[in-house]
Specification:
The complex is a heterodimer of chains A (114) and B (114). With 114 residues, chain A is mostly beta strands. Chain A has strands at 5-7, 10-13, 19-24, 31-37, 44-50, 53-57, 64-68, 73-78, 87-94, 104-105, 109-113. Chain A is globular and about 40 Å long. In chain B, a hairpin with a 7-residue loop joins β10 (87-95) and β11. The chains are: A mainly beta (114), B mainly beta (114).
């Protein structure tokens, strides 16, 4: 039990729609990262937030955006959904700011785009 | 940039047999290395990590891994597997400076048979 929760568990959307996924980090964890895991693949880094500011971004287009709130919750927003956005979306929170600190993963949100 | 190669997509093994899951990485900078396990419909759980020091790292559930800098490898081993070890295993790296995201391999499916 990592203490990182995500909602919803599953979500079905149609192409062109917008979606918001939510993550609640462990208390005190000021860094949150979001990953996309396509079926049969390893997680791919989307972006990271540190103290409510974006702190790094992977190779994802601007229609993927995020927010981090003072209460250790965060959101991943995806606009203009495409079929290839179907994946498991994972958030991970970290207590410290360094690379050595363990990232605690939530169970993920399974997004299906039809 | 970093990349991770997990050479085996699936590894079938009988219960109580030893197993090795292979991981090779590429990076122009020094890295930290991690192994994560993902059970069905769950997020990722850290098995072990190499930051520095002894190249043999022990983790949870009887797993261990050996860092080989000259071969840029970080293979995961367990001397005797159980049915409950059936899962997806991911090797990951991150630069050892700054606040950086994890780069994952594509995963190895360990299938333990009775």
């Amino acid at each position: 039990e990592t203490g990182v929760t995500q909602s919803p568990t599953h979500l079905i959307k149609t192409r062109g729609q917008q979606v918001t996924l939510r993550c609640s980090s462990q208390s005190g964890h000021n860094t949150v990262s979001w990953y996309q895991q396509a079926l049969g693949q390893g997680p791919q880094f989307i972006f990271q937030y540190y103290r409510e500011e974006e702190n790094g971004r992977g190779n994802f287009p601007p229609r993927f955006s995020g927010l981090q709130f003072p209460n250790y919750s965060s959101e991943l927003n995806v606009n203009a959904l495409e079929l290839d956005d179907s994946a498991l979306y994972l958030c991970a929170s970290t207590l410290g700011g360094g690379s050595m600190d363990e990232q605690f993963f939530g169970p993920g949100t399974r997004l299906t785009v039809l | 940039a970093q990349s991770v190669t997990q050479l085996d997509s699936q590894v079938p093994v009988f219960e109580e047999a030893p197993v090795e899951l292979r991981c090779n990485y590429s990076s122009s900078v020094s890295v930290y290395l991690f192994w994560y396990v993902q059970y069905p419909n769950q997020g990722l759980q850290l098995l072990l990590k190499y930051l520095s020091g002894s190249t043999l790292v022990k983790g949870i559930n009887g797993f261990e891994a050996e860092f080989n800098k000259s071969q840029t490898s970080f293979h995961l081993r367990k001397p005797s597997v159980h049915i409950s070890d059936t899962a997806e295993y991911f090797c990951a790296v991150t630069p050892d400076t700054g606040r950086r995201a994890l780069t994952f391999g594509s995963g190895t499916r360990l299938q333990v048979q009775p």
